[in-house]
Amino acid sequence: MPKPKTKESLKEIYALMVESLRATIPDIDDNIMHYRTVNYHNWNDDNFLESIAEVIFSSYLGWETVEKRWPAITKAFSCFDVNEVASYTDKDVRRLMKVPGMIKYEPKVRGIVQNAKRMQEIIKEYGSFRNYVCFYPYDLKQDLLGRFYGLGLTGKQKVVLDFMKEMGFPVIKDDKHIRRVVHRLDLTNSEDVEQEEILRIGKEIAVAVRERMPVIDCVFWSFGHYICKAKPECGKCRLTKICKQK
User: Fold this and answer.
1) What is the DSSP letter of 191?
2) What are the distances in angstroms from CA 54 to CA 68, 108, 150, 160, 203?
3) 118 DSSP assignment
4) Are 157 and 176 in contact (CB under 8 A)?
5) Rounded to whole angstroms, how far apart are CA atoms 132 and 85?
6) Where are the alpha helices (DSSP H) in the chain?
7) Residue range 161-216, pLDDT digits in tens
8) Closest CA to 104 of 68, 73, 78
9) What pTM did the predictor assign?
10) Are 213 and 204 in contact (CB under 8 A)?
11) DSSP β-ladder status, 157-158 and 153-154
12) CA nearest 175: which of 55, 43, 21?
């Protein structure tokens, strides 16, 4: 069993991780600030559809690729106007598939149209999508999984948790990059751990460093994606003294 980490040791791990990322990713502080301040209470219905579309496309091609293409995708999808997208026909889908920069995987394109229709149903029932997110009385994550295309499992990555993170909910994914990092830092026995264990670790670190959970997700995922890879770039890491991989 890994030895329990003190609050001070968790703070040191987090600080060294951020320090390593600052030397590797120029905009990491911007990303941290984004997740520190994101608040879905300021969103309109179109913002929610855009966020769902972004996490779905990113689960297929990765955040970096989607971010570069996002202006063209947004314009092609009528700036994610819910009613406009919900009215798209097969002709519109064919148009979208020809747009330069579009993620040209038709099931996902059609899935966004389908999700806009589902959003219309929710808006009719709750008055707005924000009201649904705020006041849905049961398990929101499970309801999102049941209603919307593309928010289910991708390997062990739960796309629905990416969407909830983008809204600012206190979640952290059991993504392969995060599981690899917590294992190498002796926070878990193995990389094959349950979501509940990842969530427990994320909460402990969030409390120790006084940050929101989406920030912890961002930092751990970025560290695993850019530095602590399957073939780690240890020269970029400030945590080699405590890493199992060294």
Assistant:
1) S
2) 12, 11, 11, 12, 26
3) H
4) yes
5) 20
6) 7-22, 28-37, 45-61, 63-76, 82-86, 90-97, 106-126, 129-135, 140-147, 159-167, 176-184, 195-209, 213-226
7) 999 999 999 999 888 899 999 999 999 888 888 888 999 999 999 999 999 999 99
8) 73
9) 0.91
10) no
11) antiparallel
12) 55
Tokens found for residue 43: 């969103």
CATH code reported for the domain at 41-151: 1.10.340.30
Question: Could you tell me if 205 and 170 are in contact, meaning their C-beta atoms sit under 8 angstroms apart?
Answer: no
Helix, coil or strand: residue 211: coil
Q: What pLDDT digit, counting tens, does each position of 202-225 carry?
A: 999 999 999 999 999 999 999 999
CB 158 within 8 A of CB 144: no
**Length of the chain counted residue by residue:** 246
pLDDT, tens digit, for every residue of 127-158?
999 999 999 999 999 999 999 999 886 544 57
d(CA 68, CA 72): 9
| Domain residue spans of the chain | 7-38+169-242, 41-151
Q: What CATH code is assigned to 7-38+169-242?
A: 1.10.1670
Placement of tokens 């202006």 in the chain: 71
